[in-house]
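Lab notebook, entry 260. We have the chain sequence and a SMILES string for 6-phosphogluconic acid, and the next step in the workflow is to get a structural model of the bound complex before anyone spends time on docking refinements. Request logged below.

Task: model protein plus 6-phosphogluconic acid, output structure tokens.
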Amino acid sequence: MNAPQLVVHRDKELMAQAAAARLVTRIVDAQAARGSASVVLTGGRNGNGLLAALRTAPARDAIDWSRLDLWWGDERFLPEGDPERNVTQAREALLDHVPLDPARVHPMPSADGAYGTDADAAAAAYAEELAEATRPEDRGSVPRFDVLLLGVGPDTHVASLFPEHPAVRETERTVVGVHGAPKPPPTRISLTLPAVRAAREVWLLAAGEDKAQAVAVALSGAGEVQAPAAGAYGQARTLWLLDTAAAARLPRDLYPVGAA
Ligand SMILES: O=C(O)[C@H](O)[C@@H](O)[C@H](O)[C@H](O)COP(=O)(O)O
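Result returned:
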């Protein structure tokens, strides 16, 4: 596991803009190197804030939107178009405003789709979709995503992997149905930690003082079952993108207070 890198911004607006600029560069580099890029999106205010910032980023037209694959790290298992679905919010923030190839946009199934209310069957279908998109050089059952974004919850959850929940202990499957989640809605679909760790780069986003404790715990050697964010790392890079409030309780050896 590579050591996480921390980038602390003055406030969440600047964090979103800087992360958007960083994402433009990563996508453009991946497209130059491999012909296309793949990004895994997250729900939550910070993930959507990044997408909204990307929509107005000056360099956004450097991206070839038709050669970008989009996946989701988790989804609230609700009917298509529900305003609480991560994909609905992502469409509103960015996806409806850029010329993506619809065949390369891979939302997780909805609760009124082909699998009805069976979240486990829907999760298995998404795992299959990921497996089909995998190339031999990915050497695994999910693509080697270029960037996988994760919002960090105040309880250290990432995607829909909650502390001590069965989904965070999953070591075989790449996508699981989540039942009885502590945060509504209770039924969700989530990538598992092994799928997260297939990404080249994992970027964790956290802003605000209500995240300070979670960030400190996850970066101070906690176990991934107790603190799922601690188990989220990338093959090449793990980046924690924070604002000063979320970084406030970090141990001094990780982040000297007042450095931002
Ligand atoms: O599915 C959910 O309920 C949210 O998507 C959740 O997982 C979110 O990503 C984190 O709680 C961080 O949220 P914020 O970025 O809003 O702080």
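Notes for the group: The beta strands are 5-9, 37-41, 68-72, 74-76, 147-151, 175-178, 188-191, 201-206, 237-243. Worth checking against the assay data. The mean pLDDT is 96.
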